[in-house]
Amino acid sequence: MKLKLHRPICFFDVEATGINIGKDRIIEISILKIFPNGNQEDKTWLIYPGIPIPPQSIAIHGIKDEDVLGKPKFKEVAFSIFRMIENTDLAGYNSNRFDIPILAEEMLRSGISFDIKKHKTIDVQVIFHKMEPRTLSAAYKYYCNKNLMKAHNSKADTFATYEILLAQLEKYDIKKDVKSLNQFSHQKNIADLAGFIKIDEEGNEIFNFGKYKGKKVFEIFEKDPNYYGWIQNSDFPLYTKKIFTGVKLKTFNK
To answer: Taking the model in full, what pTM does it have?
Structure first.
């Protein structure tokens, strides 16, 4: 079943030094760009992270320090990646929780303004877990009747994710346009990408952690302005800090 597109959509997958969005670095990213007319283009970048790759991460994706030695740093390829995903929607497997947040961090760290509001997102894992809770390899076997021979290879994972979504569209009675799939697979009521800030029923940003959990962000910034400074100096993801700054500016300009 063909995916209904009104603009290009980029399926992508990243391999990283670890799973800490704020500290870890991307070492490989693959993007499969699908155009409304059915044309495709893909690109894979191997990236030097600037920090050692831990053994536990190597055990997952097989990329070692010597594999990325001499490869460009993310900042050197950031604009090329940005241009490829500019004015597109984004899709991946567990992408809402990991791939998109860590990509946003790398973009912001490279001086490129990344705004998730400019992209609709489809998380194929969310669709899968709502229907048939499994892993990516099991999903590929279940939907496509194929074995994923190179799981945790970013290119293989990216293409497999696209195939899984097409199979899901064939199997399930769900709407097939990006807007509907975005709503179906979206993390509801999350203001940032890492889940530190939620949205209440009135549309206000609220804390989802710490001593002010459940409290309106703008009210706390008015009552305890030092808390904003603590956040900015702490180990929160850059995109989360960006959202907090936006709330603070709105509060200041009221």
So the answer is: 0.72
